[in-house]
Amino acid sequence: MGTWTPVVADDMETDTTASRHSGPRNWLRSVEWLIAAGLHPKANQTTLAVAQDLAKRMDYSTGHVRYDLEGTADRLDIHRSNVARHVKYLRQLGSLAWAQRGTRRNVRKALGLPGYAATATVYAAVIPAVYDHALGHRIVGDGYGARIVRDYRQMPDTRPSDTPVEPVDNALSGPVDNLAKRSLATPSLTSADEEKKVQMVGGVTTTATRPNKTATTPSSKIPAQAGSKKRVTVLGAAVTAAGMQLGDKLAKAIRSRVSWTRKATHDQLRWVCADMGEQQWTEDQAVRFAVETGHAHQAGYAWNPDRPHRLLAAELQAAAVRREQDQQVQEDLAQAVAWEDSTAYREAAARASLAALFAPQPAPEPERTDEDRLRARLDWNNWPEVAHHYADDPDDALDLYGVRLCTYAVRMDARTSTSATHI
Length: 423
Known about the structure:
The protein is α+β, with helices and mostly antiparallel strands. It folds into three domains: 165 residues, no CATH class; 142 residues, no CATH class; 53 residues, no CATH class. It is built from 15 helices and nine strands. The strands form three sheets. Strands 1, 2, 3 and 6 form a four-stranded antiparallel sheet that branches. A three-stranded mixed sheet has the order 7-8-9, with no helix packed on it. It starts with 19 loop residues before the first strand and ends with a helix.
């Protein structure tokens, strides 16, 4: 993972941000990862709740969302200042950029309408480079217009045609360096023969029909069984009576407790669960796997797959690939030389020491004086800036502007926001 530093205010606009444009689903997934990684010391579950509220209201085609400070505070039942604070954390993480800054300019007058309504703040969903670097994504371009490359030749879209697509995050196709990254598109399975029931990857159909001799598997780890009489599971394991018996029990548990899987027949689910049976999974493990698969692909929420068993089979394959990669990483780490013992580390440490020795010392920031405070408290017409300052850092605002001016600014900001909401 690359080194992360908070994004400064000058880099929070769509034309200055280093983060790439995204849509709501992929954006929310990146926010969850950034918060879980602990990159921002103050981001927490409240930050995630604010991000989820923004994602629900985002436009799928543009990734833009109106700030709606009052509405967000009401929906989440938290104070307006807390909403503003956690939106600031999302900006500092590089997950939000201003598409339009809110002003007091009367937007109704510009439209030729009576009354007053301030210009709303509009945010754009963006994903910082530290997330793409950590997940091994291949990026083309830079800044707001950058795009992630996805290999659709290996990962065809299995969603129904009426499912909304996020064009802002999947604009490019072509070769990709890392095929293990997550996507709403699932790895392809062996083509199905609709007249003879569905054929599982590298295995046997739910009837006596064997796979086509020309069928291929998506992974070299799963052997093709063309013309073979040996019965194998989705992952290529030999079928046993005990495994199939337990798989039958697990299929019943999944069908009864996970509603979106019921479009598949029991026989189809039983073959997917054969691998779980060979690995001696419990019912809770199997149901939890199906539930987590649904959450990862929005199954049962944003779309209902026509062939749920294929989605489960693809996720079993992806999980097997991830386990192999994790095992390879562990083996590589076990054989690797410690960074502190490497020649590169010693050379880098020597350069850093020389740089620190000869680098000019930064001038300390001047301390705030009573004259600074006096000047700041003279202009009460500057209350919008005082209100924003108070929302970002209450203690510092009180020290600079004083209690009376801060109280006036917060009251005026609340009055203006209420008036704009009711118009």
